[in-house]
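Hi again,

Forgot to attach this to my earlier email, sorry! This is the prediction with uracil bound. I've pasted everything inline since the attachment limit keeps bouncing my files.
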Amino acid sequence: GEASKPIAPKNRAAALEALRAEIGDCTRCTLAAGRHNLVFGDGDPTARLMFVGEGPGADEDAQGLPFVGRAGQLLNNMINAMGLRRDQVYIANIVKCRPPQNRVPAPDEANTCAPFLFRQIDVIRPEVIVALGSTAATYMLGAKSLLSALRGRIHQARGAKLIVTYHPAYLLRDPRQKKEAWADLQIAMAELGLKAPTK
Ligand code: URA
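Structure tokens for the complex follow:
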């Protein structure tokens, strides 16, 4: 869409609140029927780094916050390994309501909801966005590719540098891929001028 005027950092929290109010008690897609809580997003409205996941799971639906379940615990560990606290980044998803049985959001659901994510990004203006998994990568890039073809390099999306890596839920199932995910996060860290803390 159209490039929007930058919002001053001090006004970004209010701009996000206005967007949340605009979304309201959303019924724009059929995911509304099954949700307990809409999961708007969480974190610093002036974050330099943003993470985008797929959609809320059961824990997120129950709490109204993104990445608060088991995958969220691993995401927190990933953020901490980068030398950051969770409250210094911003976290959101392609869809804001839980898909039934945690299925992948259907294209009409993702295409209905993602414009609100894009507007959050336009408010926050992160320098780097990390897309977690294939669904996030697909809708951030506007095209479907294999994750393996997207990892390990820098893409552009919505005025930010976009890094694609594995979804933490996938890393819980196959921890051998954590090394690869860490390599991706190091690309993001280099772009942000961050050094990993020494343990
Ligand atoms: N998985 C996601 O993609 N997003 C969440 O918020 C939680 C789990």
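The chain has a mean pLDDT of 96. The chain is about 40% helix and 15% strand.

That should be everything now.

G.
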